[in-house]
Amino acid sequence: MSYPTIRRDQVNGMNIHWGQWSLDSFLRCQAELGFTGIELWINMPHVYMDRYGYQDAKALRHKIEGYGLKTNVVCPENVVSPYQVNPQEPYLVEPIFDYFSNGIKLGAELGAPYLSINSGWGYWNEDREEAWKRSREMLSRLSDVAQQEGVILCIESLRPQESQLVVTLEDTKRMYDEVNHPNFKIMVDTVAMSVSGETLDQWFETFGDEIRTMHFIDCNPYGHLVWGDGDRSLYNWVEILNRYNYQGFLGQEITDGCYMDDPAAADFRNFHNLERYFDEEI
């Protein structure tokens, strides 16, 4: 039996757990480790963006590429209020639309083919179908913007404590079918998937090549962890990627607070666990 492999250029470092460190320190670490691309979390202090505009994209792209890195995915802050896809109050709808539209435009200027997005969450004490309709409408409008800018939106499911909307494979399929847009594709978040008791096989059987990128991290029921710190089998999951000939990206969305004091050490351990599966090393 052949050893399962992934390509180095599929794996994207991510900067969420670097939030109290400079953007340069994050980029330098990724380059030194051997990453070739990143998924850029768009939030302060690393990247400034609001409904009115964003920082100099040309300078930001020059900085990133100066470290020998590509921006493969952008991830605007999209869970914490007010930056979530599903605003409840009517007066927030257009500001949020403008914010995510700017995320799409910034991604295009950075050369990123994909933008990570989710359904938002709605109020817990409102009718789920009303919240669902708002989410679908926003995602449809943003897909039109993405088409104009040459960017693909990739929707990920959330954990049940984060949303009452798209939290399962079934929910994701429903939203995908209802938005029904050529610039609206799929992201697998392996933590949300695991919490829902689903498998990578099920996601591939449902979506196939529509899966363009992943938040591909180790986990337990509580967090997004460095590979080796959770209870998932990296070998088994890489074998599944090979079985379905997955060619998309594998974002390292490490969010647990235990890594924020020394994100470089976390990335070192994470990268070297993944490195065993790089095809050029076999």
Report on the architecture of this protein.
By secondary structure, this protein is an alpha/beta fold. The protein has a single domain, classed as Alpha-Beta Barrel (TIM Barrel), CATH 3.20.20. Helix content is 40%, strand content 16%. The chain is built from 9 helices and 10 strands. An 8-stranded parallel β-barrel has the order 1-2-3-4-5-6-7-10, surrounded by 5 helices. A two-stranded antiparallel ribbon has the order 8-9. Strand 1, helix 1 and strand 2 form a beta-alpha-beta unit. Helix 1 packs parallel to helix 9 and helix 3 runs parallel beside helix 4. The radius of gyration is 18 Å and the shape is globular. 47% of the residues are buried. The model has no long low-confidence stretch (mean pLDDT 95).
Write the layout of secondary structure elements.
Blueprint: E1 11-14, H1 23-33, E2 37-42, H2 57-66, E3 70-76, H3 90-110, E4 114-117, H4 128-149, E5 152-155, H5 169-179, E6 184-189, H6 190-195, H7 200-207, E7 211-215, E8 218-220, E9 223-225, H8 234-243, E10 249-251, H9 263-275
Parallel strand pairs: 1-2, 1-10, 2-3, 3-4, 4-5, 5-6, 6-7, 7-10
Antiparallel strand pairs: 8-9
Helix pairs in contact: 1-9, 3-4
